[in-house]
From TrEMBL:
Its EC number is 2.5.1.56. Keywords: Transferase. Coiled coil: none annotated. SMART domains: SAF. Signal peptide: none annotated. This is N-acetylneuraminate synthase. GO terms for biological process: carbohydrate biosynthetic process. GO terms for molecular function: N-acetylneuraminate synthase activity; N-acylneuraminate-9-phosphate synthase activity. Pfam families: NeuB, SAF. Residues 293-349 form the AFP-like domain. InterPro entries: AFP_Neu5c_C_sf, Aldolase_TIM, PseI-like, PseI/NeuA/B-like_N, Pseudaminic_synth_PseI, SAF, SAF_AFP_Neu5Ac, SAF_PseI/NeuA/NeuB.
Amino acid sequence: MEIQIGDRKIGPAHRPYLIAEMSGNHNQSLERALEIVDAAALSGADAIKLQTYTADTMTLNTRAPGFVIEDPNSLWAGRQLYDLYHEAHTPWEWHRPIMERAKAQGMHCFSTPFDDTAVDFLESLDVPAYKIASFECTDLPLIRKVAATGKPMIISTGMAKLSEIDDAVRAARAAGAKQIVLLKCTSTYPASPDNTNVVTIPNLRAATGCVVGLSDHTMGCGVAIAAVALGATLIEKHFTLRRADGGVDSSFSMEPAEFAALRSESERAWLSLGTVSYGGSSAEEKSKIFRRSLYISVDMKAGDVLSARNMRIIRPGFGLPPKYYDTLLGKRINRDVTAGTPVDWELLA
């Protein structure tokens, strides 16, 4: 239950791997794209992720039914798909300088390809991994094309039924993929916490035998932290410099300070998981003295009888455990003792 991207292992034994998704937040400025890379590195991202497509590889330049977003509640209501993808795409000639900047900052950089030509292009750049978007989870020819590279694959599963996820995993494995991460995802933008269903994560892992993570479109980091507690080993969040700058994905993207909080809190959540443990940790050993135990509460003489008047359950914890209180009531002691003496078995006559 572990994969490796570059020199970074991803799995339950390692802190969550964090991906900052640039998407179209560069706002068609290479300078801004490079600034996003720098900010992501400073915020603690392990990787920056791009999307590799053109408007022509995504859709047709038409306003025919289905090619314009008609949902009035969508962030992109009324937008023609072709125009939207043209605005959001990352020019292919930017990929190399972005990847070089990421490498200089100690981060991985890879991308989501949307067709065969994008895979071939990304192979020419020797990317360390690939991401399959939720909407392409059922595009088995694309999955087989990526799997044939032998690189680690991260597959987002938004909207996919378990049978469709199984089809994708089987296709990837049959085509040569050895390292697969599946991401629980809700394909709404933004997503609401109550529609995220992160309790699916352990079930998805058990059903597929894959490393599992979360592609998160909710605001803040609360959902991601919950996912880590349920076994997510990789978290992907959209990333921007400032939501106020606008852009196709900016409204549900994290700003640098928020991503930095995700880095620290996700690691804190992962560290807290530990192992199944009872009886206290070694760090708690010194605290045992603050448990309650049985103590003599007034001066007593040899032969006196223990009672509620002279024996109490108090702190510290050097006496017998409180569970013996009723057993000891009515027993005689064998020597003189003063108040504050811990009760032990050798005290009994």
